[in-house]
Amino acid sequence: MTSEAGQNRIFERIQLLMNGLVRFLLNGLAVLLTGYLLQSGVHIEHYGYALLVVVVLAIVNAIVKPILIVFTIPITVVTLGLFLLVINAGMILLVDYFVPGFNVDGFWWALGFSLILSIFNSMVTDLTKEKKN
Fold first, then answer.
1. Which of 10, 45, 118, 124 has the smallest number of Cβ neighbours within 10 A?
2. Which residues pair with residue 104 across a beta bridge?
3. How many CB atoms lie within 10 A of CB 64?
4. How far is CA 40 from CA 30, 105, 112, in A?
5. Distance between CA atoms of 27 and 21, rounded to whole angstroms?
6. pLDDT in tens, the chain (133 residues)
7. What is the DSSP string of the chain?
8. Closest CA to 93 of 107, 73, 75, 78
9. Contact by Cβ (8 Å): 108, 123
């Protein structure tokens, strides 16, 4: 391996790490903005708790959500996928249980939070995705 190829590989890894860090911080901002938009039903104490919400939500979405999706396949098919919105709201309520500085006042607020957050996350993904030449 040449020195230039090794430097390119290191640069790519650093770029990947920085991209992940920027996404993490922007997702925290998205959580904070979503809480601000729904401030009568969703309460976030400060940005640190918003970042904690991002971490816990990622863990819950990676572990609990797939299990729930598998168990609820029949009702998801019958509702043409709309039951997945209920699962998303449930994930927000679960995060509410685990994060002390994050409070959601009920199911409908959690549903609204999950919908708005998914829109913000789509925008963050578009902003941070790698441009193809």
1. 10
2. 42
3. 14
4. 17, 9, 12
5. 10
6. 567 777 888 888 888 888 889 889 999 999 999 999 999 999 999 999 999 999 999 999 999 999 999 999 999 999 999 999 999 999 999 999 999 999 999 999 999 999 999 999 998 888 877 766 5
7. --HHHHHHHHHHHHHHHHHHHHHHHHHHHHHHHHHHHTTTTEEE--HHHHHHHHHHHHHHHHHHHHHHHHHTHHHHHHTTTTHHHHHHHHHHHHHHHH-TTEEE-SHHHHHHHHHHHHHHHHHHHHHHSPPP-
8. 107
9. no
Tokens 């920085």 belong to which residue? 18
Report the distance separating Cα 115 and Cα 121, nearest Å. Answer: 10
Report the candidate in 133, 63, 131, 74 with the shortest Cα–Cα distance to residue 98.
63
| Spatial separation of the C-alpha atoms in residues 97 and 118, rounded to whole Å | 20
Nearest-angstrom CA–CA distance, 73 and 39: 33
Q: What per-residue confidence (pLDDT) applies to 31?
A: 95
